[in-house]
Amino acid sequence: MFTLGAPGSDTIIITVLQVMMSHLDLQMSLPEAFADPRVSQRNNFDSRADYEEEYWNQEFKTMKIEWQEMGHRFSSEVGSRNRIFK
Length: 86
Known about the structure:
Blueprint: H1 12-25, H2 30-35, E1 39-41, E2 48-51, H3 58-69, E3 73-75
């Protein structure tokens, strides 16, 4: 059994969901799941996709440039996640 939580407002759901999926579906340990880079696009008013720098490899960097040319916006902040491991 484990409990997850995240501070923030519109990033809480996606943060908790991505950690849970990494742990339960991808069989990562909880420390690995918390450390795994995340990306989020919530269809909010500014159409911005948030990501962690570690998420992007060279292929995604190239695609990001193409997407920006089409008007997509990006931010390298997803929201924090906190943990206590026993």
